[in-house]
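Q: Structure tokens for this one, please.
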Amino acid sequence: MRLKPILAGLALISVPFDAPTIVPSAYAEETEKSLYDRLGGYAGVSAVVDEFAERLFHDPKIAQFFAGMGDDTRASFKQKNKNLVCAVTGGPCKVISRDAKVVHGGLGITAADFNVVAGHLKDVLVEFNVPDAEQDELFTIILTLRPAIVDRPDEDSLSKDAPAQR
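A: Here is the predicted structure, written as tokens:
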């Protein structure tokens, strides 16, 4: 059972000030759940990442980053991202990919490319009815990866429209 904050406040008003406050254990356990658990555990993370990856693979704005990926490589991409999201949200998974800077280095990813990818993640989280608080918490984590992923942070165009100069 989850108490709404307003109800919890009303309960405190009805007890004397020197009386101990008792918080139902179910409420305490729910507020202590990791983001991983609040996202639905591995099943929730897996479903979100699968849909997210499919959108990336088929978006012509960023298709050049996924060109030539066979089914096995796409499955590996999904698994590495499931493990990453699982691990950074408090789940039991281990990250099985290389450092983000190494993986994305030399791709010429622009700020606009990153924003397209972030937009797909936002859309999938909304589609899966992930609450705003959990979305915000996940994006706070994901945005820490931005400096390692984006090669050209000052470029507002998609990399397909503004090829990197080498």
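A few notes: The CA atoms of residues 9 and 141 lie 31 Å apart. Residues 41-58 form the longest helix (18 residues).
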